[in-house]
Structure formats: structure tokens, C-alpha cells
Amino acid sequence: xxxxxxxxxxxxxxxxxxxxxxxxxxxxxxxxxxxxxxxxxxxxxxxxxxxxxxxxxxxxxxxxxxxxxxxxxxxxxxxxxxxxxxxxxxxxxxxxxxxxxxxxxxxxxxxxxxxxxxxxxxxxxxxxxxxxxxxxxxxxxxxxxxxxxxxxxxxxxxxxxxxxxxxxxxxxxxxxxxxxxxxxxxxxxx
Length: 190
Prior knowledge:
Largest sheet: none
């Protein structure tokens, strides 16, 4: 366990915890990863861990939030939709063992639910910024259907070994996009 003289800054603590979690989840689901083992692998004290995270599920979701911030949400910083999705699918493919186990996590801390919520938030903001009313039920249904379908396809891809290329996944996700959403996304595509 962590030596009492070692004092990790927040970034180092987050990195150590996430790296330990990734290693554990290459071979098993989150529910089968004891927090005590996670802390030992990360060389982080229990008190330090719980100052930053509610539990191991919170660690997983916050880590995935960071991944989305560094891939999908870079559209908001001027990166193209194509580049951000290719980055996201490349990370998912490169760490498919980890994500296969992460997607098996259910309940209130479901990774799938976390992803869906964040994607809805991001796409909703992008669409509203370009005059698409999210007060219109039709538009909300389109967005919900598209994102749920995209997430389901991504889930199946991961669960089946992420064999198709990130480029193939991008083309598929783009082809499934409703025209009302595609019109806005096209502004960011290349």
C-alpha cells in the first residue's frame, strides 16, 4: 500500500488508478475487480482513492469521460467529426479487451448509460448551436434513435472483437445518421 510519505498529485493519482483498472479489466469484468486489489496495484491509499472517487464505478466513468473529452468532444475545439470518431474508435479497438469488460458493467454505473448521456449532451449542444430545436420532439427522437443505434453497433463491435477498422465503423455510423443531424455534422466532418 502507499507509503505515507508519497503524496500523489491529482493527475498522477488518476493515472495510477486508471492504469491499474485497465490492467485488471483486460481479463475480467469490473464487478470482479476488488477495490483492495486496485489500490494495491496503483499503490494508492484507500483514503486518497475515496477523496477522488465514490467507488470503482465512478473511477471507470470519470476515466471514460476523459476519453470522450480527448476524442469525441474535440469537435467543440475545432477538430473534425471524422477525426474525432476515428480517434475514438481507434482507442476502443486498441483496448478492446478492457472495453469488452467495461461494457459488461450494468446498473446505475453502466458505462453504456454514461456514454449515451455524454453523447446526447454533446450532440444536442452542437445541433442547438446550429438552429435545430431540441424542444421539438421529432428532433429529440431522431437524436435518441441515432445515438442508441450507434452505441448498440459500437457495443456489438467491441463484444465481437473489434475486427472491423475504425474507418469502417466511422462510415457505418455516418451512414446511419438521419439527414437532419447529418446536415449539421457535415459542417464539422472534414
